[in-house]
Structures are given as C-alpha cells and as structure tokens.
Design a protein that fits this description.
Blueprint (H helix, E strand, L loop, with lengths): L10 E8 L6 E8 L6 E11 L1 H7 L16 E8 L11 E4 L2 E3 L5 H4 L10 E2 L18 E5 L4 E2 L6 H4 L5 H11 L8 E5 L3 H12 L3 E6 L4 H8 L4 E4 L3 H6 L4 E6 L8 H6 E9 L10 H7 L2 E4 L5 H14 L5 E4 L4 H9 L6 E4 L1 H4 L4
Length: about 350
C-alpha cells in the first residue's frame, strides 16, 4: 500500500509543485518529518527561483522525481528546535541553501566541503536518509538538520538576500578557492544574469578589476554604470577578444547555453583558470591552449556550510544583495515562463510567507 504525501510524515505542509514535465505548478498538500533532536523547523518567508528549478521542473536533465517542490534559496524564521540543537532558537532568522545532508565523516565533510560529499543530500529531488524524497522551499515550512541551517545576518535583507544561498555562494566559493579574491587581480565574468551580476559585485568587493564578457552589447551600460565593472568585451567581436588575449587572471563563466570555450581560454594569462558555473549541455575542450599556457578549466558546485556563513557575513559587510523582482507564489508559472525567456533582472524571489495559502 502506497503512503500518500500527506500522511508520509506527521507534520502537515503545503507547497506549489510541478507534477509532470510540462513544468506547470499547482498547489499541493504534503507532509514534513517531525522535528528531530538535531532539527530546526522554520516558517518559509522567501525563496529565490534558480534557473536549475526551471530545468528540474521540466525534467531537462532526466532525473526529476515528481511531484517536484523546488526552491533552494530559502529564508525564514525558526518556529521549533530539537532538544539537542545548539545554534538556533525560536524566532531566529535563518537560511537553507542547496544542501540538507552529508555523511559528516568523509574527507570532504572534514574539510567543510559538504557539497562534495559522496553522500550529499540536495535540498530537493533527492533521496533523504529515511528513504523519502526531499522537497524545497516553495512551501510554507521546512525541517532541516541544524548543521545545514545558516544564521541570517541582521543587516542583510531577507527578501533580496535569499538568492545568495545559491547564486551568491556558487560564485563566492570558487573565487575564494581558486584565489580570485585578491585586490588588483583581473577577473572576467561571462554572462550578466542572476549569477553573473553577483559575480561582478563580489569580485569588485574583493578589489579585483572586472571585465564583463557578453554576446550582447546592450549589457555594456549596465555592467559598467550599474554594477561597476571596469571593462566590457563583446565576445562576438573578434578584434576586441584578440586585443584582450592573455590579460585575465581568471574567468567566472556563468552561461548555461552551449558556447565556445577557446576564445575564453585565450583571454587568460598563463596559469589562469576558467571556472565553469553554468551548465551547458555540451562543451568542446580546447586541450592545446591549456597545455601551452598551463591553464585550467575547472568546475564548481555551490559551497560548504562554513563558507556559506562566511559569504553571508561578507555580503552583509559589503552590502552585496542581488537585484530581484519579488512575486507572490501564484505568479510561479508566469515567473518560470519569463525566466525561460531571460525576462528578469536579475533574479525572482517568491514571497512565500505572505502569499502561500495553506488549505
């Protein structure tokens, strides 16, 4: 006998979910586990929409488990804590990002890189340790092990700050890890979307000289005048690209569409790194230029819990927040349609707390 989502766990919950690959969202009743001794239960106030939520809702990557409740840029207020919780109390403002579980014993976990743990559990569409599926923040409440809950800085807005829990850490972590956080370094940012505009903000806060690289000349004015980039390259202009060859210490590539990597590798100084953040379907690897210049193409995925807390504190100190459009949860389908058309500057945030109607 199959257990229904409403009775699978003892705590009743409500969400908006996609039920098939059409990616259409509708209200859904389900349930959360009871607050365990190390768990934090919190009311969801805001949740950002990541481009991966769109891909997952349509099963673009082929592993979506329906019904899907996305959302991994989640902020809210604590409503209950387990008996052994040490870091949080009722009323605290908290956040949950991309990860809600890891083994806590392997080398990656011991190095505060839970996001690379072989037994990592993602916030949504993953099998949790009790065998049930994880559900994200397009819901009225969350129950999460305190290790994977981060305290929210008082000076950081809850609404516009929410996307930092994915978009923010996804660019902050590799900048720190690969040494692209030193004043005076020349850093390129490919794409000026949700993650790209935050990459510019963090790189500038680190004191880097930032060059935005885009296929659209329309991005030049906002890159320089709004976000403070130092330079702009139109990637379709071969003369511009050739003139800038060998000038960048590193590049953060946020583009998820197929695009050639060779022109970007050519922009790097010897030993420079091209960091892939976007998820293009396929890439061609330009091997010889890597060998000749001692260059590297590297990938990255979110960040560990310690560096996520550090990122939030850094963002609060430097007043780094994403540019967002706040929408009610019943706007979700329209938001996804607009996101698919890149019709957003620069990140949607769902006002869950004020708009979700628990039935």
């Amino acid at each position: 006998m199959t257990t229904s989502l409403e009775t699978q766990h003892p705590v009743k919950a409500f969400a908006w979910a996609a039920n098939d690959s059409s990616g259409t969202f509708a209200p859904l009743k389900f349930s959360r586990r009871a607050t365990g001794e190390h768990d934090v239960q919190f009311k969801v106030l805001y949740c950002g929409i990541c481009h991966s939520d769109l891909h997952m809702s349509k099963n673009d990557w082929g592993f979506t488990i329906y019904p899907l409740i996305p959302g991994h840029e989640i902020v809210g207020v604590v409503t209950e804590v387990g008996s052994k919780v040490e870091k949080f109390k009722i009323g605290d403002k908290v956040g949950v990002g991309c990860v809600v579980g890891s083994c806590r014993q392997c080398e990656e976990c011991n190095n505060d890189q839970e996001n690379y743990c072989p037994k990592m559990v993602a916030t949504l569409n993953w099998v949790y340790y009790d065998g049930t599926i994880t559900y994200g923040g397009f819901s009225n409440m969350m129950v999460t092990d305190e290790h994977f809950v981060v305290p929210w800085p008082e000076s950081l807005p809850l609404d516009s700050g929410a996307p930092l829990l994915c978009a923010g850490i996804t660019t902050y972590a590799p900048m720190r890890r690969y040494g692209l956080d030193k004043p005076g370094l020349r850093v390129g940012v490919v794409g000026l979307g949700g993650i790209g505009h935050l990459s510019v903000k963090f790189a500038k806060a680190f004191g880097c000289k930032v060059t935005v690289i885009s296929t659209s000349i329309d991005k030049k004015k906002e890159a320089i005048e709004i976000f403070g980039a130092d330079d702009f390259l139109l990637s379709r202009d071969e003369e511009q690209m050739q003139a800038a060859a060998g000038t960048l210490d590193g590049i953060i590539d946020t583009v998820s569409a197929n695009h050639p990597l060779l022109p970007l590798v050519s922009l790097l100084k010897p030993h420079g790194k091209l960091v892939l953040i976007g998820i293009p379907p396929t890439i061609e690897l330009p091997v010889f230029p890597l060998l000749a210049g001692g260059k590297a193409i590297v990938g990255t995925l979110a960040g560990g819990m310690k560096e996520t807390e550090e990122m939030l504190e850094f963002a609060a100190k430097h007043k780094i927040v994403p540019e967002v459009e706040i929408v009610p949860i019943d706007y979700l389908n329209t938001a996804m349609e607009r996101l698919e058309k890149s019709d957003i500057k620069y990140r949607f945030v769902v006002d869950v707390g004020n708009s979700i109607k628990v039935e």
